């Protein structure tokens, strides 16, 4: 994507305006300034986001048992196949995968980054909350192994902030792949953390350039690192969920990498990246070459979705029926793109629309303009699907 100096200054000015625009307390919604859409006239390409819908993908009633057991794997497979054909313009699924993984060479390692943020909760809460469904992970693994010929041993599923338990995740993934999770409190794991041993450990040769000073609660400076897993893998596939975040609106593909970053003080959680440094930290993390240059595909789980964080009625990020989503109360969708910013923009649109319907607060999207400024992808803030211009949103129903 080519950016001129004039375009850079326009985006920078717009991002600043959004960042400092006052909060409308009466309506509990950020009153956004008008968008100067001339910034898009100088973007010489479009980013494609595919929204594929399949009403047969799930059959959960929002109350019975573990929702993962009500997801149809065969239907999910059909959805990703259709999405990749639309995304690449190819006529055959194997050619679509060849297009996506054109840089793959035998022996390369591939990292898959789902969002397992609720995986450390009690089983009863996991049943109600939301995470990347194993079936979505499975369909990606199927494509990599069947069409690209990637050995299962060269595929790594990771979330470094959470455990990956057998009973809620691993037993639903029938492949002999690697799982890289948050280290436990065992003596062995503590030793490995201290000695920086293993793929979950920080690669000391891979510091992340951060524009803000990152500190702990006592003001001590902290350096952020890429984990050894990503410095040793050649390819990355991002598997986020569609979920509201109380500070961002969207916990999408960009913030999903808070489960990637490692810290010089060996902390296992990204708490230092919240607060005033949050927005720049998200962008800085994603512009690291090991993330930016290795990301081949983003497949977002929008089978359900959580448009609110915590309310008096719901104390957790539970799955809810939607009122404004055009495909129905249960989205039953996958969002697929090569552009993480464009895909997050589409997420932002759907979440904002739903939150407005319920009279809920809306947060700023200025970090997405910041991401666009650094060439991470295209962002558009629109009021309707038809208003997307630089983002080409293609909707498919099965």
From TrEMBL:
Q: Where are the transmembrane segments?
A: 7-23
Origin, by domain of life? Bacteria
What keywords tag this UniProt record?
Answer: Membrane, Transmembrane, Transmembrane helix
Does Membrane count among this protein's keywords?
yes
| Name this protein carries in UniProt | DUF362 domain-containing protein
Identify the residues that the record assigns to the DUF362 domain, covering every copy.
Answer: 110-347
């Amino acid at each position: 994507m080519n950016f001129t100096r004039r375009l850079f200054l326009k985006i920078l000015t717009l991002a600043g305006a959004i960042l400092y625009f006052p909060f409308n307390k009466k309506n509990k919604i950020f009153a956004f300034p008008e968008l100067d859409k001339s910034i898009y006239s100088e973007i010489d390409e479009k980013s494609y986001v595919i929204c594929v819908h399949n009403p047969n993908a799930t059959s959960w009633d929002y109350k019975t048992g573990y929702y993962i057991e009500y997801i149809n794997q065969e239907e999910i497979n059909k959805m990703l196949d259709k999405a990749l054909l639309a995304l690449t313009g190819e006529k055959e699924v194997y050619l679509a995968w060849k297009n996506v993984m054109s840089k793959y060479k035998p022996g390369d390692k591939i990292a898959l980054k789902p969002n397992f943020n609720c995986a450390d909760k009690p089983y009863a809460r996991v049943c109600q909350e939301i995470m990347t469904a194993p079936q979505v992970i499975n369909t990606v693994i199927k494509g990599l192994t069947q069409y690209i010929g990637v050995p299962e041993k060269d595929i790594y599923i990771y979330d470094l902030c959470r455990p990956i338990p057998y009973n809620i995740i691993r037993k639903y993934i029938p492949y002999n792949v690697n799982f890289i999770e948050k280290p436990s409190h065992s003596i062995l794991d503590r030793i490995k953390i201290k000695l920086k041993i293993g793929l979950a450990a920080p690669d000391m040769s891979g510091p992340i350039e951060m524009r803000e000073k990152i500190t702990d609660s006592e003001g001590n400076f902290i350096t952020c690192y890429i984990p050894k897993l990503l410095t040793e893998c050649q390819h990355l596939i991002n598997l986020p969920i569609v979920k509201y975040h109380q500070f961002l609106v969207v916990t999408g593909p960009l913030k999903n990498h808070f489960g990637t970053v490692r810290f010089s003080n060996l902390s296992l959680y990204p708490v230092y990246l919240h607060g005033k440094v949050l927005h720049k930290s998200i962008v800085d993390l994603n512009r690291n070459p090991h993330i930016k240059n290795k990301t081949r595909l983003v497949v977002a789980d929008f089978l359900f979705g959580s448009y609110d964080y915590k309310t008096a009625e719901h104390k957790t990020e539970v799955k809810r029926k939607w009122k404004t989503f055009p495909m129905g109360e249960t989205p039953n969708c996958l969002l697929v793109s090569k552009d993480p910013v464009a895909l997050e923009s589409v997420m932002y649109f759907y979440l904002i629309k739903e939150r407005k319907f319920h009279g809920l607060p809306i947060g700023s999207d200025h970090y997405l303009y910041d991401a666009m400024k650094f060439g991470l992808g295209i962002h558009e803030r629109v009021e309707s699907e038809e208003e997307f211009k630089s983002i080409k949103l293609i909707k498919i129903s099965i």
